[in-house]
Design a protein that fits this description.
mainly alpha, 4 helices, flat
Amino acid sequence: MSDQTLPGEAGALNDVAPGQGDEGEGRLSAGLRSYLIGLALAAVLTIASFWAAQTHLIYEPGVVPALVTLCIAQMGIHLVFFLHITTAPDNTNNVLALGFGIVVVCFVVLGSIWIMAHLDHMSVPMDQLMRMPR
């Protein structure tokens, strides 16, 4: 038998059950801390969104861009703190799956808008429809 073991074999250096590493308690507290920071930031951004929508301190045309900015920030918080999407090398598949999901959603939304605009353009106006004989 050789001195080297493959990653899937028993006795491999990386063969550790999830959450059972050398730093079991430290890893748990770091993970919990990450979730709590994410929860706090998400709550602050949610409160800020409600405040921005109801306040008169923001210039009226600037409310929508403020809400869009807070929305994008909250999506980033969820991706980093809850879904753990980072730029680490082991997250390549997660980032590709996220990108593919975004492309599919864009196709569905933009395709639906295109179809509805085409139907609106090709339909008979209501005043002509009302004058048609029955």
